From TrEMBL:
Subunit structure: The RNAP catalytic core consists of 2 alpha, 1 beta, 1 beta' and 1 omega subunit. When a sigma factor is associated with the core the holoenzyme is formed, which can initiate transcription.
Record-given protein name: DNA-directed RNA polymerase subunit omega
SMART domains noted in UniProt: RNA_pol_Rpb6
Gene this protein is translated from: rpoZ
SUPFAM superfamilies from the UniProt entry: RPB6/omega subunit-like
EC number: 2.7.7.6
Organism annotation: Haloferula chungangensis
Region described as Disordered: spans on this chain: 1-20
Family under the similarity heading: Belongs to the RNA polymerase subunit omega family.
Pfam families hit by this protein: RNA_pol_Rpb6
Length: 90
């Protein structure tokens, strides 16, 4: 296939109100002690990051260097966000 036939696929970069830096590993480790299943932790953080980026207010005091994932992890560590149980389909 020639390069003339290749169309680059570019996704727009999501905009976040929380500039910050990549997640801090110490926050990941602390949150992993509370939510021990890594897949559940990832899903919780991901959902909360989407909420924060869509305009929801943080549940903790923040500083400009905190990214949305840092905020979500800190909220989990401080018990502001909890896993409430599993939904059962009957």
């Amino acid at each position: 296939m020639s390069e003339d036939n290749i169309i680059p696929f570019e996704q727009p970069k999501p905009h976040s109100r929380f500039a910050g830096t990549p997640m801090k590993s110490d926050l990941v480790e602390k949150a992993a002690e509370i939510v021990t299943d890594p897949l559940v932790l990832v899903n919780m953080v991901s959902k909360r990051v989407r909420q924060l980026n869509s305009g929801r207010a943080p549940l903790i005091p923040t500083v400009p260097s905190m990214g949305a994932a840092d905020i979500a992890l800190q909220e989990i560590i401080e018990g502001k966000i909890k896993l409430v149980g599993e939904q059962v389909n009957n």
